Amino acid sequence: MSLRIHLPPTHEDLICPAEQILDAQRLTADLARVAQDFVDEADLRKQAATLLLAYRKAGMSAIETAFRAAPLSALPTRRAYCWLADCLVSCTYALASQILHPLSGTTEDEALALLAVGGYGRGEMAPQSDIDLLFLMPKRITPRAKNVIEAMLYILWDLRLKVGHSSRSIADCLALGGEDFTIRTALLEQRFLVGDAALAAQLTKRLEEDLFKGSETEFVTAKLAERDERHERQGERYVVEPNVKEGKGGLRDLQSLYWIAKYVHHVETIEDLVRLKVFRPEEYDRFQKAETFLWAVRCHLHLVTNRPNEQLTFDLQVEVAERMGYEDRAGRRAVEHFMQDYFRNATRVGDLTRIFLTKLEAIHAKPEPLLQRIFSRKPRVKDGYQVIHGRLAVLDEAAFLSDPLNLLRIFEEGLRTGMLIHPDAMRLVTANLRLIDDTFRDNREAQNIFLDLLLKHGNPERALRRMNELGVLAAFLPEFEPIVAMMQFNMYHAYTVDEHTIQVISNFSRIERLELEEELPISTEILRDGVDRKVLMVAMLLHDIGKGRDQDHSVLGAQIARKVAPRLGLGRNDCDTVEWLVRYHLLMSDMAQKRDIADPRTVRDFAKAVQTVKRLDLLTVLTVCDIRGVGPDTWNNWKAALIRALYRQTRHALEEGMEALNRENRGAEAKKALRAELAGWAKKDIKAETARHYPPYWQGLHITAHVVFANLLKGIGDSEIRIDLHPDDDRDATRVCFVMADHPGIFSRMCGALALVGANIVDARTFTSKDGYATAAFWVQDTEGSPFEASRLPRLRKMIERTFAGEVIAGEAIQTRDKLKKRERAFRVPTSITFDNEGSEIYTIIEVDTRDRPGLLHDLTRTLANSNVYIASAVIATFGEQVVDTFYVKDMFGLKFYTESKQRTLENKLRSAITEGAERAQS
To answer: Do the domain assignments include residue 857?
Structure first.
């Protein structure tokens, strides 16, 4: 029997010539030869699969090579993958339906049509996309049809294709499509491949007449609900590891737009919407650019991972950026430039889908019941506006544009009324951004409107986010434009810089609305007592405006603030305060997280920098909002406790004078408190306990720790090791107290023991008593950043005891587990080691800023111990993949490290320890 193969027509707009992908003439001859020379069905399937697999591999390779050479040519690439799939499916159908199971008669019931559905039906395929097929029959599946389908699937599976398939009659399609919107959407995109063309045409006609027609409102409502649910599941558009397909602003949003356009307007392409005046030409141009970019990213993702991966994880971002031709420049990595383009395209998608879908929602919304319309209160809008389907709309476009300040006023009116802005009004604003020029920016009324947006209505983040998405914020503040959609390539920041800024302002508003009073008592009290809200709001808006340049962003940001603040109508004193806040917006966070705030010198230096209670209040609120705006899980009780303690001590020093921080006074108060807590002890035992410790001990720990150590030390033997583990809920950590005879390297052994049980040390204090005992307090968290559950404490204690007993060698055990996860290996964190002899009266402060990894603290403390360095305390601050370990140390003679040669020698040893550990972690 001769083989007749109906290959699909070639496209002119494939990524490379069709003959480079697949030689149709040669393939037809090869298949004809296989069809004449086979033993049985299994043999034919095997030969056909071997042959077609070779053609598929060659075709995939040709497409990839052409795409790598033109890495942004995504649309002809996806068409090429689809055309190759069409050829393979058509050949398989010909073999199964003509050679293996030929039609014996010409009965109507044996008609069979093969259709592509879903994304494959739409003609869009990435390298690892599924092939979704519909086997269509007139009434029911016949034995012959079942055999054809089974034979085809076996061959396609042997080609390593991911095939989704269904076998249905026309009646089945109508019934199932009526019940399930996912099936209905797939049928909407059905495309005839091979087989009975008349049967396929009949399905198209019946779908339109019996299923689609008259159900537009139902379909639009379902798709909008589906979109909202997906966005809720995937999270914000600006999450730093976005899903290219399902995420907000991703390809699924563009596809939703296409589905609804086709269902409602009966168009075949989005370009047809321009003809129907649904889209403007410039909006369609934005659609094309976003679609091309996102499809390029998706195709590269599939090729890098060789699987249908849609998640742009950190490690893949680096590879995709390189494939797409991005390079390091202007002080930023290639991956950061790439991700900024990604988020800007995601924003474009959001704009387009919102305009289109919201407009459709309004068109197809059901009218309110008569009684509800009569008695419901509609918000009263100012002259020039109207309410359309519950959204704020412009009454007369020409009149609106006659006064350019209306481009700001509309956002304030939206806040005042609590209404969303109608998509037509948003389009009007976006199309006229050119009206926001220097004259506009220097207009005092424009400045007042903008400040009112920030200060008058209690939820400025809503207006700022919409202004940012529409380009108004960057037009009014051109200095803001570089940070729009700017990604910071690290694991610490969960949002782009512009979205982080809006989150910071959102946190401020929540504090003002008393939503966080229990969680943030000091910030709430500061705002209740009154601060300069205008100064604080402008500082929050500008605090990160200097990011992304090859310069300290705080310094550059202060320089920018010096220019921008006067332009917003602030007076000289207010401008100076804004500039100071932007310049030092990290000061309080750094002091609290990277320095020992139990050291009076730390508080004294911070108080000297702040100078006034007014500045302290402003900086405290800014710091809290800034940390909380980094990500949903960044703020915790540990950071809250540090900020509260630093604030209270600094305020006390500013109000009572620096002598309030005197070491002797604090020591005397601590001893007095301990005597009260140990009231049941014998007087001689209390006297011995208060006399056995040096001054730093009394300043460095809370009374609760003093009580624990007093009980641990009471009656201890020379060789004894005593441990106390206790949840410190106020700090979101578990406190681990050790008491044992002091000896060199003891601090490092403690760090190793804790690292072995997966404990992340967030703070540590170690002291040596006058009678030779080491008293060390560690605050630790589990890998999730939480205190250890009570059920895990016995295991924690057991491992610590085994380590100190010598049963487990910490260094060796840690080496087997200090591996970095693959997605974390893409980050670059330069190592910086500094020595500070001014920040503490009696210690040298060594600050190690480097790449975090398991076992790092143990490596560093062991290196210091081997160099005869005494560690008094360690403060650990982790920022995603970056860690700053700060050590308060003395040399073996109890002196600071003053000489440059000693510092250099110690720095080289620490760098070697970091490098060796990093090589283990990467291996």
So the answer is: yes
pTM: predicted TM-score of the whole model, two decimal places: 0.85
Rounded to whole angstroms, the Cα distance separating 587 from 544 reads: 14
Closest to 171 measured CA to CA, from 182, 159, 179, 163: 179
Can you say how many angstroms the Cα of residue 717 is from the centroid of all Cα atoms in its chain?
Answer: 52
The H-assigned helical ranges of 784-882 are: 793-804, 810-815, 856-866
In a domain? residue 394: no
pLDDT digits (tens, 9 = 90+) for 406-459: 999 999 999 999 998 988 899 899 999 999 999 999 999 999 999 999 999 888
Helix, strand, coil fractions of the chain, as percent rounded to 5: 60, 10, 30
Q: Is 43 helix (H, G, I), strand (E, B) or coil?
A: helix
Contact between residue 404 and residue 428 where contact means Cβ atoms under 8 Å apart: no
Nearest-angstrom CA–CA distance, 599 and 765: 11
**Residues 604, 661: Cα–Cα separation, whole Å:** 7
Indicate whether 524 and 571 sit together in one domain. Answer: yes
Q: Do 645 and 514 belong to one domain?
A: yes
Range of the domain at 58: 18-209
- Which of 801, 758, 814, 800 is CA-nearest to residue 781? 758
- What's the pLDDT tens digit per position in 36-80? 888 888 999 999 999 999 999 999 999 999 999 999 999 999 999
* 160: in domain: yes
Q: In the block, which residue shows the tokens 């091979």?
A: 194
> What six digits make up the tokens of 9?
């027509």
Q: Are residues 786 and 880 in the same domain?
A: yes
Phi, psi (rounded to 5 degrees) for 52: -65, -35
- Do 63 and 178 reside in the same domain of the chain? yes
Inter-residue contact 843 to 891 (CB < 8 Å):
no
Residues 6+ apart with CB under 8 A from 573: none
Strands 113-116 and 844-851: unpaired
Are residue 601 and residue 710 in the same domain, yes or no? Answer: no
Cβ atoms 396, 366 nearer than 8 A:
no
Question: What's the number of domains the chain is made of?
Answer: 4
Order of strands across the sheet that contains 832-836: 721-728, 733-741, 773-781, 760-768, 870-879, 882-890, 844-851, 832-836
Residue 336 in any domain: the answer is no
Residue 265 and residue 263: Cα distance in Å, rounded? 6
| Phi (first) and psi of residue 640, to 5 degrees | -60, -45
